[in-house]
Amino acid sequence: MWEAQLDASLARPQVTGFYDKPTGSIQYVVADGATRRCAIIDPVLDFDEKSGAVSTGNADALLAFIEESRLELEWILDTHPHADHFSAAHYLKEKTGAPTAIGDRIVDVQALWKAIYNWPEFRADGSQWDRLFADGEIFHIGSLPVTVLFSPGHTLASITYVAGDAAFIHDTMFMPDSGTARADFPGGSAVRLWSSIQRILALPDTTRLFVGHDYQPGGRDAAWETTVAGQKRSNTHVRSPTSEADFVALREARDKTLPMPRLILHALQVNINGGRLPEPEANGRRYLKFPLDGL
Ligand SMILES: N[C@@H](CCC(=O)N[C@@H](CS)C(=O)NCC(=O)O)C(=O)O
Ligand SMILES: [Fe+2]
User: What is the pLDDT of residue 293?
Assistant: First the structure.
């Protein structure tokens, strides 16, 4: 059903990617040319775990770009609760008043991590966002319809935003030379990731795909835009004749070799709370808390 919606709306939104080298993350501004309204997708709040310093260089650069381009921010979106960086969604909402949103299965991720953090007072009800999107739901950036495609596997709550001929596929597939995202975080599943990838590959071949990370294999320049056809032809983990069984075996074998992300215990604590840092204690400082031997 949603494929039909997509065909009727093959607008070509303006997409600008902003690369954060320390985390290999790509943040996006996607704009509707007709109304000059835009959305931010997956903004990063900078964090230096060695000093504990939080800063806003990435988020401020997004806002500066929006202002210089005379765009109006309509949405602050996340594709999933990130495990490698803090989301700047809450900071950007405080600065701009624009609403935040994420996929509605975030409640499942919240329940899981609420237990890991032993955080009884945490409200695992998604109320930390202004809007929770269900699979197939349509919303607008200006006059541009955006369809939400539930795409779990990397996390329980991952969604893809399909806006005209552009799809923001986050941590499903990466660039063709980089294969796919890992599926071994709590709630992850290589089988579900395979199904999500098949849904994305069922989009029209010319669909522009924008990935969530790039780790610059072989030291090449960072890259983040490909197409459905490009992925089918050359993605090292999904090009035919790979089967679901082959993919799952490859993904699970590779995941066994990957250490947990540097910031996973820091990041989930903030990101299941919509990008809010912990409340300051009596001395005015904020503290993170995480389990030892808990993952
Ligand atoms: N070295 C990075 C790894 C981050 C990571 O695990 N990234 C996820 C996406 S959130 C992934 O899918 N990585 C695939 C890979 O490293 O092959 C870190 O410590 O932050
Ligand atoms: Fe991720």
Answer: 92
- 17 in Cβ contact with 171 (< 8 Å): no
Task: State the pLDDT at residue 9.
Answer: 53
Asked if 132 and 103 touch (Cβ cutoff 8 Å), the reply is yes
Mean pLDDT in residue range 216-240:
96
Give the pLDDT mean for 22-38.
Answer: 98
Q: What is the DSSP letter of 263?
A: T
- Number of structural domains in the chain: 1
Ligand 1 centroid vs 258 CA: distance in angstroms? 8
- Asked whether residue 187 is assigned to any structural domain, the reply reads yes
Query: Which residues make Cβ contacts (< 8 Å) with residue 93, sequence separation at least 6?
Result: 76, 99, 100, 130
107: left (phi over 0), alpha (psi -120 to 50) or beta: alpha
Q: How confident is the model at residue 273 (pLDDT cuts 50, 70, 90)?
A: very high
Cα 109 from Cα 186, distance rounded (Å):
8
Whether 288 is covered by a domain: the verdict is no
The CATH number of the domain holding residue 178 is 3.60.15.10
For the CA of 254, the nearest atom of ligand 1: 17
Of all protein residues, whose CA lies closest to atom 4 belonging to ligand 1? 261
Mean pLDDT, rounded, for 45-74? 98
Identify residues whose C-beta is under 5 A from ligand 2, the ion. 171
Among 197, 215, 250, 268, name the best residue to mutate to test ligand 1's pocket (greatest count of ligand atoms within 8 A of Cβ).
215
Tell me the best of 27, 47, 175, 182 to mutate to test the pocket of ligand 1, counting ligand atoms within 8 Å of each CB and taking the most: 182
Q: Please tell me if the CB atom of residue 261 comes closer than 6 angstroms to any atom of ligand 1.
A: yes
pLDDT at 7: 54
Residues 6+ apart with CB under 8 A from 186: 112, 113, 116, 295
- With respect to residue 278, please indicate whether it lies within any of the assigned structural domains: no
Residue 137: which domain range? 2-271
207 in a structural domain: yes
